[in-house]
Amino acid sequence: MPVWQAIRRWFDPSELRSVGTTPDYRFSLANERTFLAWLRTGLALIAGGLAAAQFLPPLPLRHLREAIAVALLLLGGTVAVRAVDHWARTERAIRLGEELPVSRFPAVLALLVGLGALLLVAAVLVKGLGG
Length: 131
Fold this sequence. Notes:
Blueprint: H1 3-11, H2 13-17, H3 25-55, H4 64-96, H5 105-128
Helix pairs in contact: 3-4
């Protein structure tokens, strides 16, 4: 499916409602709650990026603070966009009675956050050991 069609679904509720049948509202509300949870995650990552840019002291590696901030900001934006796309695909699947779409994104996000935490631990240890 072309990207523009996917994006159109995000902004055109009538297109989404034109497929399948109206589901039990509880499923749609659960899908919306999941979307909002992902959106909060994206906002938290963005807030973390802004906090890193403003409040982290200079780190042992040149521009590490800025790299951390930019990485968190980009990851937060990606999570927000991914959230709306997943919401639209899931709502469509619910309306059509299809299997819900699967995604590797939660696993990728968890790995990236874990890797980022390990890198921060290394930076803190290097700084703490006088590096």
